[in-house]
Amino acid sequence: MKLLIANRGEIAVRVIRACRELGIPTVAVYSDCDRAARHVRDADQAVHVGPSPAVESYLRIDRMIEAAKATGADAVHPGYGFLAENAVFAQACADAGLTFIGPTPKAIERMGSKTGAREVAIAAGVPVVPGTDAPLGQHATDDEILREGGRIGYPLMVKAVAGGGGKGMREVRSAPDLLAAVRTARSEAGSSFGNTAVYFERRLLHPRHIEIQLLGDHHGTVVPFVERECSIQRRHQKVVEESPSLAVTPALRERIASAAARVASAVGYTNAGTIEFLLDQDGSFYFLEMNTRLQVEHPVTEMVTSEDLVHWQIRIARGEKLTLDPAHALTPRGHAIECRIYAEDPDLGFMPSPGLVRGIRPASGPGVRDDSGVTEGFTVPVFYDSMIAKLVAWAGNRPAAIARMNRALAEYEVLGIKTTIPFFRWLMGQQDFIDGRFDTTYLDHVLADRDESFSALSEPEEQRIAIAAGLDAWLKSASSPGQASGSQPANAWKTAARREALGG
Amino acid sequence: MKLLIANRGEIAVRVIRACRELGIPTVAVYSDCDRAARHVRDADQAVHVGPSPAVESYLRIDRMIEAAKATGADAVHPGYGFLAENAVFAQACADAGLTFIGPTPKAIERMGSKTGAREVAIAAGVPVVPGTDAPLGQHATDDEILREGGRIGYPLMVKAVAGGGGKGMREVRSAPDLLAAVRTARSEAGSSFGNTAVYFERRLLHPRHIEIQLLGDHHGTVVPFVERECSIQRRHQKVVEESPSLAVTPALRERIASAAARVASAVGYTNAGTIEFLLDQDGSFYFLEMNTRLQVEHPVTEMVTSEDLVHWQIRIARGEKLTLDPAHALTPRGHAIECRIYAEDPDLGFMPSPGLVRGIRPASGPGVRDDSGVTEGFTVPVFYDSMIAKLVAWAGNRPAAIARMNRALAEYEVLGIKTTIPFFRWLMGQQDFIDGRFDTTYLDHVLADRDESFSALSEPEEQRIAIAAGLDAWLKSASSPGQASGSQPANAWKTAARREALGG
Amino acid sequence: MSTFEVDVNGRRRIVAVERLPQGWFKVTVDGASTMVDVERVGQFGLSLLFPEDGHLSGTVQLAPAASAGERLAVWEGISVPVTLNGRRHASTDGAGGRAKGEQKIVAPMPGRVVRVLVSEGDEVEARQPVVVIEAMKMENELRSPVAGRIREVAASAGTSVEAGRVLVVIE
Amino acid sequence: MSTFEVDVNGRRRIVAVERLPQGWFKVTVDGASTMVDVERVGQFGLSLLFPEDGHLSGTVQLAPAASAGERLAVWEGISVPVTLNGRRHASTDGAGGRAKGEQKIVAPMPGRVVRVLVSEGDEVEARQPVVVIEAMKMENELRSPVAGRIREVAASAGTSVEAGRVLVVIE
């Protein structure tokens, strides 16, 4: 096997690592701005697939197939995002004789439609969030839309049928806002997914987001794993995930896992996938959607079950049987937490903060796993999702895992750009998070009320930084050529900048 | 609790991490050459304890106690090496009212004498390697020495009573070499440990080094852990350790672990310790010695048992009960391998290769743990053990752990100094290692026969490096101030060196 | 002795640095002095020890940031902007005060301006949203890094902007 | 076009570098040419792509080593010494041959010379032990990095030496 990774950044690095461990040569693809990216350097071969905008590179199915042909790759891993849930891509791989590391095009298509997936769940006897059965097409009248909204009840969610990642999704609290929300969601969905169809779902008031990872082989076996808790979301985007969930008892775990397995089996699902549920305060759970790919948060499952999901993806695609013990997959060992480290400034509303990484020293040591995708000297581009690393802490129990995550965040150094590390340091200290008192509305609520900076330092800490800056300027001026010690300190940083620009 | 770490380098960093996770403030100590060392920077406080030679700094008991007093520390972790097995130090801590994170001075003293430890093992009904019961004092005559040697039989080992780490140890194959070996061992032992007493042990021909980690609390509980396999040694120094051992069946594990627990219980052992055994080809095992401290290789035990030994050391010292399940401690989860990465040049007889670390990018990602003690900009000193990192790979089984270690070694970058990484890359590919066909004599034998470089590259690889060097020179000359592109490439690296010397 | 104006997290401090014979430095921040033992570590790091202040230890990384002349200091996972304004001017009286001067809010990526939330002359608070820009199919609020008054609004809703384009100037 | 003499792992190669209009380089090593797309990454790294040679990818790190003028190239966990001898001299005929010139074996740490295993005029092989030095209470063999002839022995058994002291010169 030779495997082409139709993706970039940390997930491409993750897949390359798995391939190296399995002795499989790898092919990376890259756009203009990713020429010096880590995934390009770590792969055995690398093929340029176009300009920086994703539609001209990482979303170009034809270029991916060409790159595979040019390098003799016979398998393709789509990662997540980009073409990962694109049935046309999976079919194009199959047509070109390439093994697609994922489910069949049919399964992707079936579960990729949110309303289609709901039908599958209903048929499998799995409860779904009350909502519209059929999507509202482009020509639905305002009256039809309002009638359907009234039937579901408020608050409700307007969702794009082809949606994902929080895009094309709007919350509506009362009828007067519905028509505007439908218009916005349609416009977003049209530009993001090329499909303006939307549907409505009742908005549960305080749901947790609980999801079940599963694997299916080509011999009819489907194995569900212990749940992941992904309720810590900002604007419907997960930022912290953990496993297991404090809200799930072993008995409930059995029930949710078996529901997830029923849905997957109903479509003959193969390879890795995840079924997302909303867990209501009364313990009832509802099918939300299925992600027909690997998830960003797969490491927390790996850490508590001792399985390697990417290895399994490749082995399943090769036709191997799932030999893992189903009881083992449902029994968590300790507790794992993942923080998604983004190149964003949490103090400016989580604005993307792309730029040149001047240095990176990821956290390490006992119980810490760093899956980062950037190195010193790489410029985080503006064109894609700005996640630069997944940081995972494992420990024997949840409080110890939080303490370890705190330790890891404090030792993680990213130089030159802003990241969300200060935000996570704050979150790990929040009593509600520590006590597990949260649902999917928690973070947006807390952030809305919050006005302080996440990067606030104590007076002694700020003084220490001022001292460091003063000493830095002193030392730079003292070492400048042709200058007596400290004579022209005002120019110290400018001189340094010139030197740095010259140096490699 | 505030904890002073009476050590340096990666083990000091390891202990600081544990303290941060437990919310305990830390105090580092440092010698002249360690001013900018990572352990100094990571601790909350740091105290200078003397010049670079260890006898003037890290071995100064008085300075350690003073540093604790000066900073208000009330506990001391000795790490390994330096004062870790020094009963006088443990007693001095106790006398100063400091909690020593380790066993009692009495236990250290009792088990620190190799002949005394043999007596404890014999009394506990644990077999020992046939050897002299009483040490041979300074005044033993040549006749007495030769008679005792004849009684034990050849080959035999001459060992310093106070020895450790391969020092003061000599193998003797026949009687004519005995007197010279005793003289050398005595001289080494005298300068290393201030004690010239030696004893003899029969040399097993193909033994494996198997050891049992254990913990004892202050409430009479002793828990032994699954064995570590440490037969990969160069000149009696461990370089690779793993857990579990391919040579140990569950039944044998039970027997060795229970023998280890009997020895520890016989001296009322508390805190972390390790009992080393030789495992003969016929399955018999012999008590070798006890290390009354944490070991370098403790991470492999942590990875296969999900316990944190340094956390436990601190908790035990605080008086907590050992609540872990003994059956769990003896049941390995998967397989872990550790490589000790040294600043040594494996192609020049493993000569120490101290110097300025220009950059370090440790391996990371799934199943990899890096415990490194150096950062970019640190000069590895010539004064101490040259280990700069412990790299550990975990996977579901041994072949997968070896494959992962290979992947991790290939991605580990240490710039500016030579390390033993190329040696480990070679070792991981040796069929005897892969098949588990080795004993403590394996590595020295293979190395003696071997003449090729560990850093040999293929012709295309060397060409690629030559290409990189040529391009580097071209780019440097092109960016030099006041020079036209490529006009004076000969000076490119010299110009660059000047700039690098100027820069921070 | 050299004196610098240093802005940390938007707060200006006067830092005086004096090298002592034994190699340590006497550093005075806003009038209070402390003894510092400093070592460079790597390209951008400084290890600080305070031998007369409880032997405290800490490392500050000072790497160049995206805006020229600014550094991003990293301390225990927290990063804050630092600027160095050079030798103290005799006329400066800003010790302890807020950093002065204009602040430009620029588009951090190519995108489309969705909404402009302020007008010229408005007073804004630190971190108040001023412009909403759509990029990567998500709406992002651009906020003011400081409290101040809007001097110029150079963006209008519906227009496309390149990365680095100045949208709002705050003084 | 610029031409360099590059020693990799003790083997000399002639490397000619020519920039092509589209930004790639034509690099000729000992007469064989290949197309290279190169990017700097970080302080010392170079990412190489060979667009016309199977799209191969690899990163070489070239950091300064302890000996002045030498670099230590790191490739997939293997590090090898690299020196650059500058422009090719018209008289050089060493293409593909062994690196010429003297090699000094220096004490890598302070210690005591235990044994000297060679004499002036001896022929030694690459990696043959030449001096045994005791440091950190362990005996360490110093080996010759190259094959050659011992030109000078500057060490004698029993003497203490400082780090960096030349012990043996090989030509």
Describe the structure in your own words.
The complex is a heterotetramer, with two copies of chain A (504 residues) and two copies of chain C (171 residues). About 2% of the residues of chain A have low confidence. Chain A has five domains: 99 residues, Rossmann fold; 135 residues, D-amino Acid Aminotransferase, Chain A, domain 1, CATH 3.30.470.20; 73 residues, ATP-grasp fold, A domain (Dna Ligase, domain 1, 2-Layer Sandwich), CATH 3.30.1490.20; 95 residues, D-amino Acid Aminotransferase, Chain A, domain 1 (2-Layer Sandwich), CATH 3.30.470.20; 43 residues. In chain A, a hairpin with a 5-residue loop joins strand 16 and strand 17. In chain A, strands 9, 10, 11, 12, 13, 14, 15, 20 and 22 form a nine-stranded antiparallel sheet that branches. In chain A, strands 3-2-1-4-5 form a five-stranded parallel sheet. Chain A has a three-stranded antiparallel sheet with strand order 7-6-8. In chain A, helix 13 packs antiparallel against helix 14. By secondary structure, chain A is an alpha+beta fold. Chain A contains 18 helices and 23 strands. The two termini of chain A are 38 Å apart. The relative contact order of chain A is 0.10. Chain C has 171 residues and is an all-beta fold. In chain C, 0% of the residues lie in helices and 58% in strands. Chain C is built from no helices and 16 strands. An eight-stranded antiparallel barrel of chain C has the order 1-2-3-4-5-6-7-8. In chain C, strand 6 and strand 7 form a beta hairpin. The radius of gyration of chain C is 20 Å and the shape is elongated. Chain C starts with a strand and ends with a strand. At the A-D interface, strand 3 of A face strand 4, strand 5 and strand 6 of D.
